[in-house]
Amino acid sequence: MQEFGVSIPVGFGQREGMGQVAGERVQCIRSKHRVEKFGEVFTPIDFVNDVLGEVRTVIDLEKAQVLDLACGTGNFAVQILRKKLESIVENDSLEKRQREELGLEALMSIYGLELLADNVLKCRDRLLEDFVTCLELTESDEVTQAGKFVLMQNIVQADVLKMCDSEKSPIILSKWVYMDGIYIQREHQLIANQVDAYKTKRELGSKCHLQFKQCGSVKFLRMQDLAQLFNGPFSVGGRYEL
What pTM, to 2 d.p., does this model score? Predict the structure, then answer.
């Protein structure tokens, strides 16, 4: 059994109002219908930063693998990625290629599950935009294409309360490990069946460390392999498997 470092519980810290993202006001409620039908309320960014500030007193957020069980459009995921990328770009001793590799590794460490397809796409788009902007990448860069493939695997449409993906299959995520600066180990991780015992948001929310177990074979890839596996376009649903 494997364990991801940090999990953001379902419904954790949600409250009404407006949030702030990089100078933008972000509406926390899209519509009354979506709130009533799906319980959709986006977490305000000031509250996100308060939570992450408390988390950083317990763990090294820059190195942790993080799973958001109800990621929405990525308010938690985006802020965590920014903190990871900031620590990379502020290191003047790193060469451009090293920054790209470490940036991709940071992207690989962030996971999100989300019930609504439009939120999944928005979350992927926001993470990609920050990834490209912080590392000063272009659309055609190999690492950009690799990052797109990673996001297709890491940000997934799923019903966490029923513990299934959009196709009613068990939720499977990829665990990525940079081996030696060249090869990237990828293994599929299945959410352990024991989580099925948590039937309500309150019960599931109390489980802050979810366990995963390996399923399928382990593969070793290079960044260029990941880039080639992405065959776009990025702004549609679905996942690309090996």
Answer: 0.77
Q: Please state the rounded mean pLDDT for residues 165-169.
A: 88
* pLDDT at residue 53 is higher than 60: yes
High-pLDDT (> 90) share of the chain, %? 38
Closest CA to 195 of 169, 165, 161, 157: 161
Residues with Cβ within 8 Å of 106's Cβ and at least 6 positions away in sequence, in order, are 62, 81, 84, 85, 88
Q: Please, what is the average pLDDT of the chain?
A: 77
